[in-house]
Amino acid sequence: MKDVVRFKLASVLVFVSLLPYLLLIRSFGFEYSVIANVLGLVGSTLLVWQFVLGNRFVSTRLTPDYVSLTKLHIVLGTYGVLFVFAHPILQVITYGTSILFEQRVLFGRLALFLLTVTWVTSALFRKRMSYRLWLYLHYLNYFVLMIVFLHARSIGTFINTVPYIYYYWHAIFLVFWILLGYRVLKYLNFGKARYALVRKKSLSADITQYTFTPKSKKLTPRPGQFAFVRPSFFGESHPFTIMKFNARSGDLTFSIKAVGRFTNQLENLERGHTVYIDGPYGVFTEEGQNNGLKVVIAGGIGVTPFVELIDRFGHENTFMFYANSFLVDAVNRDDFKRELKENYVDVVSQEKTVQEPVVLGRMSKEILSKYLSKNFLPRAKFFVCGSPGFMASVIGMLDELGVSSNRIYTEEFSL
């Protein structure tokens, strides 16, 4: 609940930051030229907020729920771009198309072009592009904000004529420049923990377990949290759930499915190799870290947030369903069986001959209702993790079984 309050506080801060611009309408009237400039300022400020909340140094101090802030980050970008696009449209309505070709709006034209490129690639072609290409194009937004500042500073009507807007605008971009400098330092691994690979174990044809031991500071994650792993000094970093944490040694264990270039690169790491880890982040399973009734439903590699949860908080009031294509794909299965006993159920869709308590087929509401007593369904909290399709299917089943949405907790597979 505390994290929800913090998330709402972040949303309120964004809205309050726009009020100085809205006061301009009250002072100067509801004219196209006034609205055009106000929308430009509002849109630019939303894009700065998008950058600010995308900075993990800031976002995690507002709330550890990094996934929710990432969603807010997307919303801010969407509306920020719409307001920025409305700015030149209203200017053309007011002054005519000739204004687009004037030398004094050169910075504005350049910013609009770069913003259009990033918006088109993100909104229309994101699913068709590789993550790497999308990421590099997304970095253009940093240059967009720099150019927007120069554009507004040189010809901005209100910035150059209204003192409080002048100082407010410069304060906003001072924050931007400070955080941009911090991001550069983070790119150089400032503040990240250095870990060395000590064990690498193949769990199946496409899943490998990696254990890293700290070489510098130790991270102390809670069950269900994730961290960003960077295998080289200047390489990319990707988020993975911390499957196991050894409080005494500080060792972190990840089970990672090979699905692309980055995860394939991890498979080539040798023992002793240094990686840079940033985290931990996330709040998934927080509501289940107690002795209350809970049901865990995992699909494939989506089991990783539940390993520590079951190890620390699994008991007679915990039930787990683990869905896989084949039984051999079930990560940590023996430990789950030992800890939960008859409260653990495998659900496999492509096995031919198996014995109880392994269930053949796909996860269904019939399977859930068969194994869950009437004591569980109306009272337990349900934790679901897997592919987007798997989670949507399970949430639908739970809804049909009468489980209220405020007792269902899910984790996104990607950010």
Q: Which key phrases capture this entry?
A:
single chain; 415 residues; seven-stranded antiparallel beta sheet; six-stranded parallel beta sheet; elongated
Care to describe what's here?
This protein has 415 residues and is α/β, with parallel strands linked by helices. It has helices at residues 2-28, 32-53, 56-62, 66-95, 106-123, 131-138, 140-155, 157-161, 163-187, 261-267, 307-313, 333-340, 365-371, 388-400; strands at residues 193-202, 207-214, 226-230, 238-241, 244-245, 252-257, 274-281, 294-299, 318-324, 344-348, 358-360, 381-385, 408-411. α2 runs antiparallel to α7 (140-155) and α2 (32-53) runs parallel beside α9 (163-187). The longest helix is centred in the first third of the chain and has 30 residues, at 66-95. The protein is elongated. The model has no long low-confidence stretch (mean pLDDT 85).
Write the layout of secondary structure elements.
Elements (H helix, E strand, L loop, with lengths): L1 H27 L3 H22 L2 H7 L3 H30 L10 H18 L7 H8 L1 H16 L1 H5 L1 H25 L5 E10 L4 E8 L11 E5 L7 E4 L2 E2 L6 E6 L3 H7 L6 E8 L12 E6 L7 H7 L4 E7 L8 H8 L3 E5 L9 E3 L4 H7 L9 E5 L2 H13 L7 E4 L4
Parallel strand pairs: 8-9, 8-12, 9-10, 10-11, 12-13
Antiparallel strand pairs: 1-2, 1-7, 2-6, 3-4, 3-7, 5-6
Helix pairs in contact: 1-2, 2-4, 2-7, 2-9, 5-7
